[in-house]
Amino acid sequence: HGPCQPHEPGYGLYHPGYSLYDDQIPNPKSQMLAIQNAKAYLLKSSTTSGLNLYDHLANMLTKILDERPINAVDIIENISNDVKGAQFQKKLDTLRDEHEILPTFEAAEKCKALFLTANGEGGEELEEEIGESPLPNVMETAFYFEQAGIGLSKDEYYHIFLALKKLISVQPIQTCRFWGKILGLEMNYIVAEVQYHEGEEDKETEDEEVTEEGGKGADRVEDEDEEKEKEDEPPKSTYKPPPVTPKEENGTGANKYVYFVCNEPGEPWVKLPSVTPAQIVCARKIKKFFTGRLDAPVVSFPPFPGNEANYLRAQIARISAGTQISPAGFYWFAEEGDEEGEEGRDMYEENPDFQPFSVAEMVDSLSTWVHHRQSILQQGRCVWLNPFKKSEKKEEEEEENEEEEKAEELDEVQEEIGPPLLMPVSEDEGIQNIPAWTAQPSTDLIPQYAVAILQSNRWPGAYAFAAGKKFDNIYFGWGHKYSTENYSPTLPPPVQTEYPSGPEITETRDPSLEEELAFKAAREKALAADKEEEDENDVEDDGEEDDGEEDD
Asked: Where are the strands (E) in 353-469, listed by range?
């Protein structure tokens, strides 16, 4: 290779006239140049790993000095491998010490608040609260469903138990029940079904009505101002959309119960809004998976009037109306309800003289089960309401023609009558060759301790059990109704037909050159004739004036 050049590393160390073993003092300039060249060589990055020897040696020395291992020279190769491996570890943060949070730790942190009790509570007060509390025995229900292999894990059941206890301590609840769990793509929904104390729910509805009336009052003022400004505008369309079917009042029909949801036990409960008939009607026409976010939009056709919270509430109403069942005879109608007829359809109470059926009877005959929830009509309500009735009262002062048109519309509307309350399950329509319900015992090996289990085939995931005088309903599923055919979205409406063409709207054909010339010639001829007539009239007028002057 020959002697090193000034631009190469190592130049100066073996320069002629200088040796490491000589007692001569080296030239400072040549020594600094040699050091710079050597450092530049060590700083060259590798073409394969991208590392350089200078940093690698520095990291090795730092590691050795920090750890100070015994016989470091014997494990220098292992230290080198460890330093190289540390360079290729994926770091998600700029900090070196990253402590990963395990999912189990996060779940424990969420459920930590459920196990904390309020301070200052005595044992006697706790006993009184336990006796008067509307808290359901979720663990007992879980035990019965577990006999048939239905339900969640015991840990999750207990966490839901504590979450319901926390909900009851915050809300003025009279009755509470664990409704079930609806699965979602991102998160799931744990659903609680409650009833408020008398008067508490009315306060909330009054607050909602006040806010709505305040908004309407402001809208009226704005409408009056707009009418004054738009007096000179062209006429608007006289089309009137069909009347909106009002929702059922809270505590009745589809809004008889109030529902709270949360994604995980320990998270805050969120109250779902009341359901409207329009939301139920549209929910029957679409099929959407839940995301787990209540504020997520529902993109569908036909467009759904609301977000995922409204769609979830509509599906809960549909599932409850079709799958909430009980043993026949457990409920009976009150005497007042029998006299009132339709108004008393929802007024039933527990039968104190109820004699439970045996498990074999409840499995063999579906007539031993009945629906204790009102069915939802095609209108989207449990009790039919004439949509034109309200508008007729408001327009009493209109002309007779409009009243006649309304009378014709009222005649066309047909009242819907749904199945009666406490109707046997055996009368439910099947799905082609599939029965609506499937009954089976929890076990065939020990029939004397078996539990009657009923499974809905129309709403997969809906179950009911009965054991003596105890029964309950629960739902675990995606919130979709079973269909024998693949789901196909509703087709858009047909394209509007064109307006019929006639002579009154047909565009005039452009004239040809010959027609334009003939038109011009005729127009000039007509102008010339008019001019001649005017000249003759002027001449006659002048002659009459001359005759008058001669007479004078």
From this structure: 369-371, 437-441, 452-456, 462-467
